[in-house]
Design brief:
The chain is an alpha+beta fold. The chain is 18% helix and 33% strand. It is built from two helices and eight strands; from the N terminus they run βββββαββαβ. The strands form two sheets. Strands 3, 4, 5, 6, 7 and 8 form a six-stranded mixed sheet that branches. A two-stranded antiparallel ribbon has the order 1-2. The radius of gyration is 17 Å and the shape is flat. The two termini are 25 Å apart.
């Protein structure tokens, strides 16, 4: 049995662990739609939550790297921040190799195939 790290600091036991799952929250600035782009810092602020994304790092070895270190190493590949759009990491967990995200499970249930898997990253 392996140790699975969770972003809340809890430790859980599982048979297999080899996939680091990183979850994000995206936001869109509706105030920027009517902005003319003039005046730095003067873009109207009207941010709305727009969902998020799941990213995975396969063949993850927590004995070699801590999950939080890996998250820091890939943060610049995931997060973005502009006047128009933001994406921020909100959590992570180490999962079994056969783990499916909720969105992947829903695709299998409704369509019988996963057309939009979690985005795969390399370290």
């Amino acid at each position: 049995m392996g140790t699975v790290w969770r972003d809340n600091g809890d430790i859980e036991r599982k048979n297999t662990m080899s996939k680091l799952l990183i979850t994000t929250q995206t936001q869109e600035n509706y105030g920027a739609h009517d902005w003319d782009g003039e005046g730095f810092g003067e873009c109207p602020q009207y941010w709305k939550m727009k969902g998020g994304n799941d990213y995975v790092i396969k063949d993850f070895d927590p004995a070699r790297y801590t999950p939080s270190l890996i998250v820091q190493l890939v943060r610049s590949k995931i997060e973005s921040d502009s006047h128009y759009f933001r994406e921020s990491i909100i959590g992570w967990s180490v999962e079994a190799d056969d783990y499916l995200t909720e969105f992947e499970k829903d695709q299998l249930d409704y369509e019988g195939v996963i057309r939009f898997p979690a985005k795969e990253l390399a370290i």
